[in-house]
């Protein structure tokens, strides 16, 4: 069997000696534990979504409109019967999963981005580093294997180019441009606590370590509290690029030879424009429901985007995945891989490295099981014939 399902045997064998898991065995259980144990501002930042949080709820309920139709007696459950590995944008992954770029991981656990790099390296999957990180590009690059850099394109092309150049030098294998966040969405959980981490100097490590950014300051940020406040205000004037257009991807192509993915796509016409402008992939995503309240569920947007650009570019997916069956459904609808978000951040906050590893192993083992029991030897076997639509 694939190695990921061995997690199940590990737990049952432990039970023979009276050992039961210390951490919850579901994404929902991890979230509940995190709500009880994390600092309120950390939990609110990770868990919160836009306004009434209808989009976050829609991301989950969208999976209820699909049912898997397993195929039997396919020889996919024996030892060595499955291979979950894929290649996406030239990056080889042991399973079609990368950790989504979650910003300010230092809120939930010190050195969170470096831990994410180390854990994903151990498991053979990918990680995507956020621009809004608590660790630098270089720190993560030194610890990671298969990793991509997520670019929040600042309102300064010279700074954007510096970020991209640093990522390429540090070993990133792709650039992921997030386009759904030219400004922050309306997030009541954070607003109720009057807490935006960046204004406290958190999540801006890549700015504070960048020569282009530092050249804009009159004094080094570490020199004094006043200098740090000036740096934070400079950051505030640079974050978000309201003038960015598809044609700007041509600049990015001039800056790097790395594959380019555009994240935050829901409309098929936008997907077509991005690919026409030079993107190698699009990520169908509504930012986990954190930007536009009432937005279409990401899963509901996926089939049309695949139909529009799937023959010319890789289509990836995030927003709402919580189980192995969710992952299977997204792949059957045409996604090449998924970016997995909140549950592993909850695990990280609860128990550090062990908690993150546990959360990711839950998803991977569940997917391994669902894949084999549905009669599939690998992701390439997944297609629309394996799922039914219900209303």
Give structural notes.
The structure is a single chain. The chain is α/β, with parallel strands linked by helices. It has a single domain (3-389), classed as TIM Barrel (Alpha-Beta Barrel). It is built from 16 helices and 12 strands. Strands 10-9-8-7-6-5-4-11 form an 8-stranded parallel sheet. The chain has a two-stranded antiparallel sheet with strand order 1-12. Helix 14 (298-309) links the parallel strand 9 and strand 10. The longest helix is centred in the C-terminal third of the chain and has 32 residues, at 342-373. It is globular. The relative contact order is 0.19.
CATH architecture descriptor: Alpha-Beta Barrel
Number of extended strands: 12
Structural class: alpha/beta
Shape: globular
Q: Taking strands numbered 1, 2, ... along the chain, how are they ordered across the largest sheet?
A: 10-9-8-7-6-5-4-11
How many separate domains? 1
| Sheet with most strands | 8 strands, parallel
- The number of helical elements comes to 16
Order of helices and strands: HHHHEEEEHEHEHEHHHHHEHEHEHEHE
Give the termini separation.
35 Å
Work out the radius of gyration: 20 Å
Helix content: 40-55%
What's the rounded overall pLDDT mean?
97
Portion of residues in beta strands equals 5-15%
The CATH class assignment is Alpha Beta
Uncertain spans: none
- Under CATH, the homologous superfamily reads Aldolase class I
CATH topology: TIM Barrel
In short, what is this structure?
Helix content is 42%, strand content 12%. The longest helix is centred in the C-terminal third of the chain and has 32 residues, at 342-373.
């Amino acid at each position: 069997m694939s190695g990921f399902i061995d997690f199940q045997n590990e737990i049952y064998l432990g039970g023979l000696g009276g050992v039961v898991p210390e951490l919850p065995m579901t994404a929902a259980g991890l979230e509940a534990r995190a709500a009880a144990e994390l600092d309120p501002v950390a939990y609110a930042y990770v868990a919160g979504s836009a306004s009434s949080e209808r989009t976050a709820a829609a991301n989950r309920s969208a999976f209820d409109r699909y049912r898997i139709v397993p195929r039997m007696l396919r020889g996919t459950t024996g030892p060595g019967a499955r291979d979950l590995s894929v290649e996406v944008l030239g990056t080889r992954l042991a399973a079609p999963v990368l950790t989504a770029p979650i910003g300010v991981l230092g809120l939930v656990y010190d050195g969170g981005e470096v831990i994410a790099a180390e854990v994903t390296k151990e498991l053979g999957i990918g990680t995507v580093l956020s621009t809004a990180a608590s660790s630098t590009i270089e720190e993560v690059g030194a610890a990671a294997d298969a990793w991509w850099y997520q670019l929040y394109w600042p309102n300064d092309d010279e700074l954007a180019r510096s970020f991209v150049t640093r990522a390429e030098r540090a070993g990133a294998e792709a650039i992921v441009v997030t386009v759904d966040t030219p400004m922050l969405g309306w997030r009541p959980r954070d607003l109720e606590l009057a807490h935006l981490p960046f204004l406290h100097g958190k999540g801006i490590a890549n700015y504070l370590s960048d020569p282009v950014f530092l050249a804009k300051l009159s004094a080094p940020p570490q020199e004094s509290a006043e200098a740090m406040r000036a740096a934070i205000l400079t950051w505030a004037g640079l974050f978000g690029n309201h003038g960015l257009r598809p044609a700007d991807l041509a600049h990015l192509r001039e800056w790097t030879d790395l594959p380019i993915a555009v994240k935050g796509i829901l409309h098929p016409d936008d997907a077509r424009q991005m690919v026409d402008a030079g993107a190698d992939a699009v990520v169908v995503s509504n930012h986990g429901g954190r930007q536009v309240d009432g937005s279409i569920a990401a899963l509901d947007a996926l089939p049309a985007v695949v139909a529009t650009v799937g023959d010319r570019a890789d289509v990836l997916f995030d927003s709402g995945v919580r189980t192995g069956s969710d992952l299977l459904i997204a792949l059957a609808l045409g996604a090449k891989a998924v970016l997995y978000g909140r549950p592993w951040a909850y695990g990280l906050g609860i128990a550090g490295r062990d908690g993150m590893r546990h959360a990711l192993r839950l998803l991977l083992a569940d997917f391994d099981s669902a894949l084999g029991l549905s009669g599939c030897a690998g992701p390439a076997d997944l297609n629309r014939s394996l799922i039914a639509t219900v209303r």
